């Protein structure tokens, strides 16, 4: 039996120490839930920075060595780099080591793990903290990032109950609320509430930025525009990866949106007040309900 | 010669005492720039409320009587009600009275004034304060609403220079920055930075609100979604009016946006990373530049 003072995680390996990975390490340290934090990743510079900031205790550029002593491995690398990570650590995880990730699309991550591990490791718990800012990098990390936020876990049929429980406990210690759902359902929900809005914000700003009088146009952007376009300041590479990883669900949502937008445009064109009012009122009602205290 | 202590406006008549009209009255009182404030409008209840709050000194439900003593008339009624207002005050304005409005689309307002006044009164200065919140009504009004915001005036060929100067001075006293541009250009700029974003926000929330698993979907909306959809809580009637008043420019912007969205969706479908990255990077660059301190 473990003494009561033993931390939840003895050796935590975080692969990809950026905003999410760095904030997780900070939160677990603050909760005294972790012994040693080992960082890893493709580039040395962010790891050195993370070490300087005290976010990690040491780093290993070699992924196999990084996970060698770990009892919990969190892959917080960009979605587009996950395949490389899984290929490098497959077969290198210690027995009973729990493996989880923070990818914003789960179907593609699960597919890559299955392909590269030659099956689904029972210790693998796919996860996704719904948290973040438009900033990125370990310098932007802070221990309260997950407080009051939701973390979605999408356990598979093969997932070990003990591994699931450890990952759940880890996230709860950061102050997050942990929920479970299926992989496909996760990807649908996120396409609707996160991936589509990002696509709309990026497209809007880009459409305006390519107009001839863009300087003039942007000069008159007011507060509403600032809030509306905030997510267009998000990391392009990260969102590129998400779009491709959740391609199918995202394209379905874009189609749905375009159909509705076309319908509304027709109503405006025809001066169809009833349709316009119905859409606006239904939207206001839904949005007001959502954020009612 | 006027004594130096005389206020800029002796008798200010505000037709439509809501968020904008109420905030203007409050700001001008604070600047000691106004003698008497007369409120008018279709419904008595908001006027009684405005009187209780000290925003106006008295009110007149009869529009002709409301403007009878005014040296400045500000029409802050919804765009859809402006025709009725202009019809009621045409021929009733005292000589040398300045007439201005706060409509979010200028082509339609100018058209209505010309039609209902039988020409363009020299004292008419079309205007648009780029300010507001998703709240509405006189209860939401506050004197600082225009501080640091832009007010666009779109004077016409017939506009009297003295009238223009008085309206400019009025808005400057609220702390706003006053700029001038042509009617058509105003409507283009606002379609791009304000009307299109509202349409996108309303459509997105409505699209999601009509999905079968809407309750589940909204539960996982994060901070980005909250900011992105804030403008979908705006007043449906007001935005209905704006969409119809600026129909032509808005539909042109929706077309442009749809074309770009379709282009991006194709790139995602085909895994065309170069195109996706170009759009996202260009958008991030434009947005970051816009709000760089």
Describe the structure.
The structure is a homodimer of 293-residue chains. By secondary structure, chain A is α/β, with parallel strands linked by helices. In chain A, 51% of the residues lie in helices and 13% in strands. Chain A has two domains: 9-181, Rossmann fold (3-Layer(aba) Sandwich), CATH 3.40.50; 186-290, Orthogonal Bundle (6-phosphogluconate dehydrogenase C-terminal fold). The first copy, chain A, has twelve helices and nine strands. A six-stranded parallel β-sheet of chain A has the order 3-2-1-4-5-6. The longest helix of chain A is centred in the last third of the chain and has 27 residues, at 183-209. Chains A and B meet through helix 7, helix 8, helix 9, helix 10 and helix 11 of A and helix 7, helix 8, helix 9, helix 10 and helix 11 of B.
């Amino acid at each position: 039996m473990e003494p009561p003072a033993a931390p939840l995680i003895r050796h935590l390996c975080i692969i990809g120490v950026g905003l999410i990975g760095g904030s997780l390490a900070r939160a677990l340290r603050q909760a005294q839930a972790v012994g040693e934090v080992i960082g890893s990743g493709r580039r040395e510079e962010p790891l050195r920075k993370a070490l300087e900031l005290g976010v990690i205790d040491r780093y290993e550029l070699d992924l196999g060595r990084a996970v060698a002593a770990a009892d919990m491995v969190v892959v917080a690398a960009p979605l587009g780099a996950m395949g490389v990570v899984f290929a490098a650590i497959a077969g290198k995880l210690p027995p009973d080591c729990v493996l989880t990730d923070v990818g914003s699309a789960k179907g593609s991550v699960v597919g890559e793990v299955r392909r590269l591990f030659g099956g689904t490791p029972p210790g693998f718990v796919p996860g996704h903290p719904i948290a973040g800012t438009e900033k990125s990098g370990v310098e932007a990390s802070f221990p309260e990032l997950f407080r009051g936020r939701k973390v979605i876990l999408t356990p598979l049929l093969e997932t070990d109950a003990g591994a699931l429980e450890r990952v759940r406990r880890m996230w709860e210690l950061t102050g997050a609320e942990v929920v479970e759902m299926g992989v496909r359902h996760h990807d649908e929900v996120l396409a609707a509430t996160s991936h589509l809005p990002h696509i709309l914000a990026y497209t809007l700003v880009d459409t305006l930025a390519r107009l001839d009088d863009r300087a003039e146009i942007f000069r008159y952007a007011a507060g509403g525009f600032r809030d509306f376009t905030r997510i267009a300041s998000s990391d392009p590479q990260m969102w590129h990866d998400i779009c491709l990883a959740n391609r199918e669900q995202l394209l379905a949502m874009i189609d749905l949106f375009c159909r509705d937008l076309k319908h509304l445009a027709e109503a405006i064109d025809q001066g169809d007040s009833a349709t316009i009012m119905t859409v606006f009122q239904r939207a206001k009602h839904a949005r007001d309900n959502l954020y009612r205290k």
